[in-house]
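Board notes (copied after class):
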Amino acid sequence: MFSDHHFSLSRLDNVCQMMGMEISDLVVEMNQQAMASHISQLTEEQEQILVSDPVLLLVSICVLNGWTMTDLQSHYHLTRLDSLNLIVLLPLTVI
């Protein structure tokens, strides 16, 4: 089907449904894999910065593994830390 160019969008949707996915899920997965494959090695400066800041290291690992801000907030209870004034969550903060 691929080589004959007969793999339609509706066929892709059917395959995704059989796997319990939406096409958008497939696109997100592809983007995550593409981003992960871009970083194959850290510079010495990047390593030094990450190991000197354990929180930055933790967040970096989570983000590189596809975690969203919502994932981070729910798993690490960031809103609770914000309410305790231990951190400041800013609106539309990009990690």
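Comment from the instructor: The first helix runs from residue 9 to 18. The helical segments are 9-18, 23-38, 44-52, 54-64, 69-76, 78-83.
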